[in-house]
Amino acid sequence: MNILETQIQFMKDLKEQMSDDNKCSMHLTDILRSDIDGTDFGSALMMIMQARKINVSDFAKNSGLVRESLYRSLTKAKCPTFMQLQRTLRGLGFEFAVIKKKG
Question: Cα(67)–Cα(1) distance, rounded to whole angstroms?
Fold first, then answer.
């Protein structure tokens, strides 16, 4: 398998995993722990939307967000705001939670 085929398979496997709520939750939590500026978290949310075949325009309308702003914030063109992240998470069936750091 060449590099391109490997990358395509990796993306296919990752998208399949993103249709599972528990795996999504663990993936998003891992990203939150390591993402400095929030852009990786936004990209992960976009990947979940793509894996679940969610139309960005319909999602934006239903969640009260502007489509262009939502798209920019979830594709690393712009760091998402807390409101955008919160509404996107809620629209996908997730929520933020604060837990005490271990150690």
Answer: 38
**Going residue by residue through the chain (103 aa), what tens digit of pLDDT does each one get?**
688 788 778 777 777 787 888 988 988 888 888 877 777 888 888 888 988 889 999 999 998 999 998 888 888 777 788 888 899 999 999 998 888 888 7
CB 88 within 8 A of CB 60: no
**Domain residue ranges in the chain:** 13-92
What is the distance between the alpha carbons of residues 53 and 55, in angstroms, rounded to a whole number?
Answer: 6
DSSP 86: H
**Three-class DSSP category at 84:** helix
The vertex-51 CA angle with 83 and 93, nearest 5°, equals 40
Token pair in block for residue 6: 């490997």
